[in-house]
Amino acid sequence: MVKVCVIVPVYNALPYLERCLSSLAAQTLAEAEFLCIDDGSTDGSGDLLRRFARQDGRFKLFTQANAGPAAARNLGLRNARAEYVMFCDADDWYEPDCCRRMCAALDDEKADVAVCRTKVAVEDENASLRRQAAKEETYNSPLVGLFAAEADRLAAAGVVLWNKIFKKSIIDRQEIFFPAGCEHDDDAFWLLYGLYVKKILFLPEKLYNYRIRAGSIMGRYFARQPKDKNDRYKICLFVCDYARQKNLPEEKAAAVSLFCRQQAGMLFFELFSADELRRMAEELNRRRLNFVFAESKGRLCSAPRKGLKEAGRGRYVLCWLLSKICFGNRRKRFRRKKKDLRAQLKIKKLISVAD
Known about the structure:
This protein is α/β, with parallel strands linked by helices. The chain has three domains: 4-222, Spore Coat Polysaccharide Biosynthesis Protein SpsA, Chain A, CATH 3.90.550.10; 228-302, no CATH class; 306-355. The protein is 46% helix and 20% strand.
């Protein structure tokens, strides 16, 4: 029986692909299967995939017209017949013990997801890109061990797929899939999967090797040159639609709202006109999220919907004073409240939205 399926979307990755596939072939776990999806490659990647599939029965090849990594991963999920699912990018590679160690972690600790650490290799010559991307602490949480899946623990795991192992049963039962056509599809997948995680396990080993190069999705992101400037906005609409269809309880709906606020804040605002941002804000507000959005000075700003009517200058000044005279967790709470009130006062000047 196959223990884990590793899904590998491939599009014109020939210079890096052999190292990736060789690392999979070298896995010490015999009960692994590698689902390689050729996303319409034109550089010979398909020929290399076919060669590995002929030589090693654990490799399964699927082909599709070019539709992006999200559609390729969805195809992989539909064909995965294993207890666990992992993901590997075609320009990265696994350590030989990666699959065995990740599967054993879930088996032994009965967690819903396990997270390993990673090594980072930066190929690009751009000094700014190298400074931002080469910090391994960006991708490696200091946490080690088993934890309850609270919001800060899930955030510490990062949104990337390749450092995690997932339970196929949760994916199937909750009908989780990727937003086709979006590049940052891993953000949406991790949010939706995280809604149903009860326990998360952090491993100390660096089992994945992550390459950052200029032409990759993250390379373009660090260079502020996204393929589609609307990508994160589309992801917001995708998760909102999922939440509505699932009729999520209040706590999970609040997590979706916060996710949309964070995604909206990561847009490259310089690429949008004020009218475009205004239309985005109106559409997000129609979703009745826990946050209210508005365009201001070429940016999307947001504030908590709860308490918006009651927010006033007096409350803001009171929280400002209390944040100065209190200590510890109480001071942190008042600082957060002050920040929310400041955002609400700004929103109230721009739009009128009833609670």
